[in-house]
Amino acid sequence: MTGRRISNILKKEWRVMSSDLNSLLFVTLLPLIIIAQAILLLWLIERFGGEAILTNTMFQTAIGKLREALPAVAELAIEEQLQVLLLSQINFYLLLIPIMIAISFATFSIVDEKLSGSLEALLATPVRTWELLLGKALAGAVPALLVTWVCAVLFILGVVGLGWGQLVDLVLTPSWFLSLFLLTPAVALLSFMLGIIGSSRAKDARTAQNIVVVIVLPVLALIGLQVTGFVWFTPLMSLALALGIAVLDILVLRIAMGFFQRESIVVKWH
Predict the structure, then answer these.
(1) Could you tell me if 118 and 269 are in contact, meaning their C-beta atoms sit under 8 angstroms apart?
(2) Which of 23, 50, 129, 255 to pair with 173, CA 20 to 30 A apart?
(3) Could you tell me where the beta strands, DSSP code E, fall in 46-186?
């Protein structure tokens, strides 16, 4: 029964999403813009800032960490080492896609139902609170995750288009795949769970969005830690990070259940 109730919520949310042009654009066009910006940024840094970076002490530290993780990098020219370093950040950059979709989409989920009055009918059904919240989070996280995977493929094609195709094997490491298939789903679910919390407690979508924005900062910190050479995420560290976020997902779901008091929340909203 639990699976059927969550499935019904998913179908309802996807039906609403598919009928709204803005939602479709958020889930499709926005990720393409993000990945296009990433490819353009890499090209601009390598093309116009490469010489300055190569002489930077911080770069020397970062490239040292990269050589330790990937000994084959030491055999490349220094310019190609810079390219590998830049490309190695994209696994974390891809995390921004589900986060941005959550900021734009998930926060409207419950707020819109509150304003339209459709939430009361939903709360009157036998669906449990955790099923409702998880279903709504998955309804956004699943398409966001699929789009992120598509964008990962497009990024690799873009790298080949830049003429860096010979470096792809050095970028597609176990850490890359762990990040893509474990960390990204965990972050996607966390982003939408935070969006649901914000949407359930806020009076409008703008206020709800502020809650999801906070997750952008840790993602940017992950990129900064690696690109500055402070730490390099090995497969074991990537796995540990993914499992840690997964545990956080469960905790956030429990917190969301505490905030979403179905017996009184509708009364408080009116």
Answers:
(1) no
(2) 50
(3) none
Q: Tell me the residue type at 142.
A: V
Give the number of other CB atoms < 10 A from CB of residue 122: 15
CB atoms within 10 A of CB 195: 31
Q: Which two tokens stand for residue 38?
A: 């990433």
Average pLDDT, the chain: 80
Q: What is the pLDDT of residue 212?
A: 67
Q: Is residue 269 over pLDDT 50?
A: no
Residue 136's identity, in one-letter code, is K
Long-range contacts of 49-55 (CB under 8 A, 24+ apart): 50/79, 50/82, 53/82, 54/78, 54/79, 54/82
User: Tokens 């998955």 label which residue?
Assistant: 138
Round to whole Å and give the CA distance between 136 and 128: 12
30 pLDDT band, cuts 50/70/90, is confident
Q: Between the CA atoms of 48, 52, 58 and 64, what dihedral angle is there, to the nearest 10 degrees?
A: 80
| Distance separating alpha carbons of residues 19 and 185, to the nearest angstrom | 25
196-225 average pLDDT score: 72
Residue with tokens 């769970």: 193
